[in-house]
Amino acid sequence: MRGAYPRIVLGLHRSRHERRLLTGALDLGVTAVDTSSNYLGFGSHRALAGAGSDLLSRFSVSTKVGYFPGRDGAQHSLDPARLYAAVEKAASELGREPDLVFLHNPEHSLRNGSLRHRDVLSQACAALDNAAASGVCAAWGVASWDPSSLLALVDPATPRPSVLMVRAGLLVGVETLDAADALVEAWGVDAGSVWGMSPFGGSADASVWSRADPRVFLRDRGRLTRVQAAFRAAYYLPRVGSVAVGTNEPTHLGELVDALAGEIDEGAVREYRRLLRDHSCGQPA
Question: Mean pLDDT score of the chain, rounded to an integer?
Fold first, then answer.
């Protein structure tokens, strides 16, 4: 068995909830798993517990709350009482208290940037803060697909999350990268407590990874495959300490574990971000 790699989190958004995936992750030293209350048609917690209730004590388990079943599909809510109850339900369905609970895409309910939304965000964060203080979960964080929507809403009175999760990787636009960096600074989250998600933009098999060569970001360009290089670069776009990634195959997860040995040319990453920004500024209005 390899040594632990806490920087990789097995994400269950598109992954099968299978025992072999959990045992394969443990064999590779991947001891963190991330899910959400709304994954698998709001059945992820029960499926995860069913596949490996005896294994979950060996994982750090994170989940997300914010989406709820509705008449026309999932609906989003930042109501503090509903969020607190959702954390309690997650613990019940998992058969254990989650190690981390994210407020899931709070921007979904905060689209127009109204100043009153500062109070809405603050109260939602306070609900998760209270859940952690009460022992319903060990810690809480914020997972944001579009962090730019939150920047104007965070002030010193807003409860501070322990972890911030944002999109990461070569397919993330410069506006989102800059917004993520700004939100990390606004909340004062330590860089090691920032997580990245969706490092392949949805699929490691997408044609973009055969057309582009992410190995230009590596110091040793012959050591890793293109997909491995893309994954390794995701830790620097923006700078994150962990990346949540989904897969259905332990073999693929093992390839990503091996990718962590690659050394990134940080100068190439800075130049890439500069080029992205120049291109963005040069686009017609």
Answer: 92
Distance CA(184)–CA(193), nearest Å, equals 10
Instruction: Compute the distance between CA of residue 61 and CA of residue 19 in angstroms, rounded to an integer.
Output: 15
What's the pLDDT band for 280 if we cut at 50, 70, 90? Answer: confident
**DSSP string for 124-156:** HHHHHHHHHHTTSSS-EEEEES-GGGGGGG--T
List, for residues 217-263, the tens digit of each pLDDT value.
999 888 899 999 999 999 999 999 999 999 999 999 999 999 999 99
Q: In the chain, what percentage of residues exceed pLDDT 70?
A: 95
Place of tokens 């920047």: 151
Q: Are 154 and 120 in contact (CB under 8 A)?
A: no
CB distance 247 to 235 below 8 Å: no
Structure tokens at 8: 């990789």
**What is the Cα–Cα distance from 42 to 50, expressed in whole angstroms?**
14
What is the token pair recorded at 77? Answer: 């809510």
Residue 5: CB atoms within 10 Å: 19
Fill in the amino acid letter for 50: G
**Separation of alpha carbons 214 and 21, rounded Å:** 27
